[in-house]
């Protein structure tokens, strides 16, 4: 073997270089181990605090908000903290039915980005009802809005359209 190496130094050098290059290429393509970026964690923590404050501002009465819920997300692309407030069953006095609401806001600027309302015909929430409102404000400007598609009049399709809009703000 030693004799072969001495006689084929160029071949040995080429093989060694190829092994090194392949190792660099292989390990260079491996995903880097990710660690939580403390800056991102800090932004999400501040967003969570701002969302809680907004939720309490938006529905000031603790008894009124006991069945309501919210979720929040700091969108790094838009550099904004969003809060989605869900009010699952509000009695609707004029019809005896219930109103189901979802509202998307910027938790800091308090700008509304979307509103969804479904009114059920019965006193308990049901899909039997009608779309009361569905508006999306892509820039957080109530003068610049888009209504849900008129084809989406049933609960499932109208809610899905609104939820797809919301995903653009609540996910990165």
What does this structure look like?
This protein is α+β, with helices and mostly antiparallel strands. The chain folds into 2 domains: 34 residues; 133 residues, no CATH class. It contains 4 helices and 6 strands, in the order H-H-H-E-E-E-E-E-E-H. It has a 6-stranded antiparallel beta sheet with strand order 1-2-3-4-5-6, with helices on both faces. The longest helix has 21 residues. It is elongated.
Shape from CA axes?
elongated
Q: Please, what is the average pLDDT?
A: 80
Number of helices: 4
Strand segment tally: 6
> What gap, in angstroms, lies between the N and C termini?
57 Å
Strand order of the largest sheet: 1-2-3-4-5-6
- Order of SSEs, N→C? HHHEEEEEEH
Short account of what is shown:
The protein has 172 residues and is an alpha+beta fold.
Which structural traits does this protein have?
single chain; 6-stranded antiparallel beta sheet; alpha+beta; 2 domains; elongated; 172 residues; 4 helices
Give the topology, please:
Blueprint: H1 2-7, H2 9-29, H3 38-58, E1 69-75, E2 80-91, E3 98-106, E4 112-120, E5 129-136, E6 146-147, H4 155-170
Antiparallel strand pairs: 1-2, 2-3, 3-4, 4-5, 5-6
């Amino acid at each position: 073997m030693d004799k072969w190496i001495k006689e084929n130094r160029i071949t040995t050098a080429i093989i060694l270089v190829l092994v090194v290059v392949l190792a660099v290429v292989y390990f260079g393509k491996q995903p880097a181990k990710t660690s939580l970026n403390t800056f991102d964690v800090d932004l999400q923590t501040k967003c969570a605090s701002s969302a809680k404050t907004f939720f309490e501002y938006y529905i000031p009465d603790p008894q009124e908000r006991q069945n309501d819920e919210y979720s929040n997300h700091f969108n790094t692309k838009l550099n904004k903290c969003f809060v989605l407030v869900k009010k699952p069953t509000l009695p609707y006095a004029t019809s005896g039915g219930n109103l189901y609401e979802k509202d998307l806001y910027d938790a800091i600027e308090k700008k509304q980005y979307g509103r969804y309302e479904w009114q059920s015909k019965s006193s308990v929430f049901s899909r039997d009802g009608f779309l009361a409102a569905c508006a999306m404000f892509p820039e957080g400007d109530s003068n610049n809005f888009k209504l849900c598609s008129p084809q989406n009049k049933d609960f499932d399709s109208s809610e899905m359209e609104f939820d797809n809009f919301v995903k653009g703000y609540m996910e990165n």
